[in-house]
Amino acid sequence: MIKAISLVLNGDTYVSTELSQSIVRGVFSGAAANPFDQLSQREFQVVICLAKGYPMNEICEMLQVQYSTAHTHKRRAFEKLNIEDNKELTDLAGAYDLLS
């Protein structure tokens, strides 16, 4: 935790060991350079909003979709990205500079 805080305070990006290993495995397995490229447009919109910290009810309003539809997009995107929670999503999106 101290290493992560120190890196961020110095203007660097912290990437967890699990995420960095996942990225390296993807590169060596021939996976897409950017894992977000495999998402549909709507899945991408939902996960970027989640990564930016928007709650699901606001995402539904912004994208004008039902909660169940947004949740389905989220679930499918998490499966494609091989992640389990919003923290991993935020780390991955940050690693690919998608949050600016």
From TrEMBL:
Record GO terms (molecular function): DNA binding
UniProt keyword annotations, A-Z: DNA-binding, Transcription, Transcription regulation
Top-level lineage group: Bacteria
Gene3D superfamilies: Winged helix-like DNA-binding domain superfamily/Winged helix DNA-binding domain (1.10.10.10)
SUPFAM superfamilies, alphabetized: C-terminal effector domain of the bipartite response regulators
Keyword Disulfide bond in annotation: no
All residue ranges annotated as the HTH luxR-type domain in the record: 32-97
Any one biological process term the GO annotation gives: regulation of DNA-templated transcription
Pfam families: GerE (PF00196)
InterPro entries assigned to the protein according to its UniProt record, in alphabetical order: Sig_transdc_resp-reg_C-effctor, Tscrpt_reg_LuxR_C, WH-like_DNA-bd_sf
Keyword Secreted among record annotations: no
Protein name (database record): Regulatory LuxR family protein
Organism of provenance: Dyadobacter jiangsuensis
Lineage start: Bacteria, Pseudomonadati, Bacteroidota, Cytophagia, Cytophagales
